[in-house]
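>> received
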Amino acid sequence: MLHTDTRNKFLAVFEGIREELVAHMKSEKMPEDAIMWFNENLIYNVPGGKLNRGVSVVDTLTILLNRPPTDDEYHKAALLGWCIELLQAFFLVSDDIMDGSISRRGQPCWYRVSNVKGLGKVHNIAINDSCMLEGAIYHILKNHFRRESYYVDLLELFQEVTYKTEMGQLVDQITAPEDNIDIGKYTLPKHTFIVRYKTAYYSFYLSVALAMRMCGVPDVYELMGKTVEPYKEADRILIPMGEFFQVQDDYLDYHGTEAQIGKIGTDIIDGKCSWCVCTALAHGTDTQKQFLFQNYGKKGPEQAMREQDVKDMYNDNEGLNIPKRYEEYSKNTVAEINTMIELDESRGDRLRQDVFRAFLNKIIDRTA
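>> returned
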């Protein structure tokens, strides 16, 4: 959980961004109802999350500078942070439509909102709304970074990470199509591939890489006779961290409450390729696997009962005991990531260990 002062200072930058984007709509002579709709799209979908991805740009910049950022440095880092939050909003709005999700961040998913300021229901307009959230990223980058030497690097980072995330979403969707669930395709390696692309790059690598570009960290440099490739090094450590983060999400989807995680977990009913079901398939008996084939992802009048039956099987202390397996996985994964962080101390000040430690500390033992 972010400190209140940290969150409020970061949110203040969003207000400026929102006003800037609305002003641009007005300059394009957009009708008043369209301007009002876009404004509600921004307010409803962008600032309501935990904001860890966005604030992490500021945190990383501060660690790399090894001093508090100036007001201008903070503002620029916060702008990039909000670009990540816009990217996150773009992904979530579209993902909720594809998954038929019910709630997000403790409120109805955007596509399910029945009335936007008297302008009508959202429904499929949410598809275009998600695209506008993505388009806003490049408007902000152009307005505030066009004259910076690293402007093209920022554009490439956002474009490449967005493309990778969409690749992951594609594999996720065709592995678990809503109308043809086949959990026989689900394996732990497949799950790792999906979350690496769908979550890890934009949730972990992007924040650090943006701050590194702001600090002028080059693609490669020599240090004590050794060639250092800092972006590859960041990728090597942060992507496994992102995989761990998604496994936590998968576990909380089944084990957490709506009040705790801000949404109703639907992975079992939706038949998602979750770490939990992949683990159950990898370690379950033939009888347990058959039970999953018969009940996992089965929608209909009995879906709530089937979902609870799957949860009960996950929770069985004498059987699969997914909570215990998750606890063991978490302990081992954190130890492995710590080893990766400590393994190489020859990165120099351009890529400090504290960058990675700050990320890991944010997600260890999280419950939401």
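>> The first helix runs from residue 4 to 27.
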